[in-house]
Amino acid sequence: MHLKQDKKPSLIWFQGVTCNGNTHSFLNLENLENFLNKFEILSHPSLPSTQDFNTITKCILTCDIFIFEGAYDPLMKRNDTLISKIVKHYAQSANYIIALGSCASFGGVFKASAPERNSGLLFNEQEKTGPLFTEKAKVINISGCPIHPEWLAYILNMIEKGREIEIDDLHRPIELYSTLAHHGCTRNEYFEWKIDSDGFGKKEGCLYYKQGCRAPMTHASCNKILWNEVSSKTRVGTPCFGCTEPDFPRQNLFSTKTNMSIPEDVPLGVPKRSYLTMAGIAKTFHINRLEGKLIDYKTTD
Amino acid sequence: MITKQLIDQIEGEASIFFDMKDDVVNFATIAFPHFRGIESILRGKNALDALVITPRVCGICGHAHLMATVRALEDAYKNAGYPIELSRKVEIIREFTLVMEIVQNHFKWIYLTIIPEITKLTDSTRESTPLKGAYAASIASKAIAVFAGQWPHSSYMIPGGITTDPTNIDLLKVESYIDELIGFFEKESIGISLDKFLSFESCKDFNTMHSDISYLESSLVDMKMNEKGFAYDRFLVIGDHSFTKPSKLKQTRAFSVDAKYVNTVDAYSPAQNSYAKNAQYKNNFYETGPLSRAIATNFPIVKNMHRRFKDSAYSRVMARVFELAILLKHSKELLKSVDISQKSCNKSIDISKVTGIGFGIVEAPRGPLLHTINIKNGLIEKYKIVTPTQFNIGSSTKDNPTPAQNAMKGVKQKEALFIFRTFDVCSVCTTH
Questions:
Q1: What is the distance in angstroms between the Cα of B171 and the nearest Cα belonging to chain A?
Q2: What is the DSSP string of A59-96?
Q3: What's the ipTM?
Q4: How does pLDDT run across A188-219, given as a tens digit for each residue?
Q5: Residues A160 and A29 in one domain
Q6: Which of A79, A94, A222, B237 has a 20 to 30 A CA-CA distance from B206?
Q7: Would an 8 Å CB–CB cutoff place B171 in contact with chain A?
Q8: How many Cα atoms sit within 13 Å of A86 on the Cβ side?
Q9: A103 shares a domain with A41
Q10: Architecture per CATH, B2-431
């Protein structure tokens, strides 16, 4: 899967059942112009393209990189052509297929538009039963609702430079998805000492215990590569909804399911017993600094 | 003979079916072929989950959907006997991030849609700079993200307030983004100071400018867009905000408005299946969006344009440009009045105790956005969304055309396609 280096890789960005969230997120990329100059954009939902949409849906061109945004609905038509035909054509000719966003990766929010037939390109939620099974070696999932522009830029840069991209079982690039959304969260100390945030609108407290935060169970780099270069959901007190995982969107997103006041899902890879032991010990201590407002704490206390 | 024209790069696609007579449009119908069923996706879910799902209606105005949802939920709490109080700080910050979303939308529309279309239509050799729009929009998105964590698809507004508790560090950062945006607009878009631009009273004032916006303005005149693209000269503003005034306007005569008179009917699209609906007010079509909002507030230059050129494509485009300028200045004023010591979020009772109906109305970039939620024991029984593009575009019969259909009548097909885009069409919102 290496591209010839003598010409710019050509790229088609095509949409299925979508909200355009990934398109607009991508437009936030810093130095967008320099980045785009490395590629030949044959088609894009909002950027200048070398081909018109009528030509794209005729399935007479080929491209090096095929980006698909949105859920896959076998009955959907674009410009009166079934997307099943369009996707098959470009998937066969492309060297790389990028399923962009959680809808294209797993079905996401718009799987529910037609649950019996909608899916991602390669996966239907966790199951590898999507329409591009025969092209599976080429498929890279960049999950997230939406994707962070740098995640896509990283993958396209890797492709352009001819470097190998390692992926996990769900076909997500491991450099982006081996970390958890929890890594780098500014509330980590509250997590360590098991102090919940007691409601919303506070800088203090962890959102994992009551407010539904999925960051300790979610593969993402939201607190490492900050959103819009400035922040993240958990930094502004919004729980992580686990939008990069195949089960997004879950139900009851603003509350944590608990058994005997212990979260039902414990941090990824941590045995429940270990977690309970640690939590039990941490909770026996009272740390003054972490119980009030940070700004009120005096170092002489 | 009826000819079909595919329209893409409008947040999705649409088809326009033209019936031509003597080289001009006799009648046109519009079809939006894609449907996602957000309203049925929401059914049965925890009502708070709507705060995460409805922003996914639209990648470019999802924040307006978030605000409509939070207003609908708070109204439902109130109607169920649990009124919610918001601090002034919460009201201002919500308003600020909504305004910033409109700002990013208008920058993108000017640079990625309308200037390239003009260049194409006039065979101009002027170099198009679409990425200026993306750059400015990304700065506005940063300003949103300081409060909202990210843009697009934030869920930082919740019943009782906002999830964030900003500091002066955050406020100063946001102020610097606004200054950067204003500086960019002055240098790259208008070539004069923002205050001078906002003080324009006559279209003659554009003759003093040499910039992207004066190119846009003079091209519109060259294309005679001040004599084309008229809708109904009736305007509707429903959302209650610091930057406009809810009103129903016939020409410039203002009347009071009540969202209960908004109704929707199925679109008329004989040539192709369409999932669009037509939104009306008391069974009549009204234009919504920046032109309506500027006329509702009597903004001098837009009122002057309207006096001379009515609701032409020219007025519609230039009103959007001026709204961008107005909102850049307004956003600075909004920030000044934030008192960070006020509460970010008041606790509300458990949603499972709430049964009732709630209405949430906001002005989105393209006009009024209305959400209605029916909640039973905290679960969504029914959710209904009416979007601005349903008011402006829709598709109706020849004897009762929608504003966009009316505006495309009697002009050449190429011009009709341009006029269509002057409404800033959002396909995904239309069919949600």
A1: 13
A2: T----SEEEEESBB-TT-EETTEEHHHHHHHHHHH-SE
A3: 0.97
A4: 999 999 999 999 999 999 999 999 999 999 99
A5: yes
A6: B237
A7: no
A8: 26
A9: yes
A10: Orthogonal Bundle (1.10)
